[in-house]
Amino acid sequence: MSDLLRKLCAVLLLVGSCAAIADPIACDDQQAAIAAAANAKARDMLQKVVSLMDAGDSIAIDRLSLWLGVINSGQQQAVADRLNKAWAFLGGTSFLCDTADPDYAWVYKEQPFTVRLGSAFFSAATAGYSSQGGTLVHETTHFLISGASKDPPKRELYGTKAALERAKSSPAEAQQNAENLEYFVEATFFGMDPP
């Protein structure tokens, strides 16, 4: 629970109840199995995409430009390094679940190896944009040691359309954005054109 939520909860306890604000808990067996499968898929996704980039695959390179605004080998290497770090993180990631939270997932950048999963994660598809594996790619790029990627500053700046526009208008921002990184990996791994 964030410090702000803890303070809010303390105030609410004085005037009523704070039962609705809770820390995520250990995932049940079904949730843990779903998270483990998504984790394995995310690692496969990252490994394949980085391999394609390293091999100079023309489709992967085109998608780097489309989703991240990458225009040179230095930028390409920086993306590959970040994705390799995310792959390594996923090897030791643990999961907490909070299905009362409507979001997909979240992390605390300073607390590596723990991903909190919300209800949207469990209803997400296993392939395509905003997939379970892609969500884990998104979240692990947030950790400080894997580059501290950022989220869009406003809810309306989430999604594929906003990510494509960000890559065109601000490539440097796109290359630091978890949404853009996720969609690049998903598009390349699943062989998808932009929606």
TrEMBL record:
Domain Lysine-specific metallo-endopeptidase as annotated: residue spans: 53-186
Keyword tags: Signal
Any one GO molecular function term: metalloendopeptidase activity
Domain of life: Bacteria
Signal peptide: 1-22
InterPro entries found in the cross-reference section: Lys_MEP, MetalloPept_cat_dom_sf
Protein name: Lysine-specific metallo-endopeptidase domain-containing protein
Organism in which the protein naturally occurs: Paraburkholderia phenoliruptrix
Origin organism lineage: Bacteria, Pseudomonadati, Pseudomonadota, Betaproteobacteria, Burkholderiales
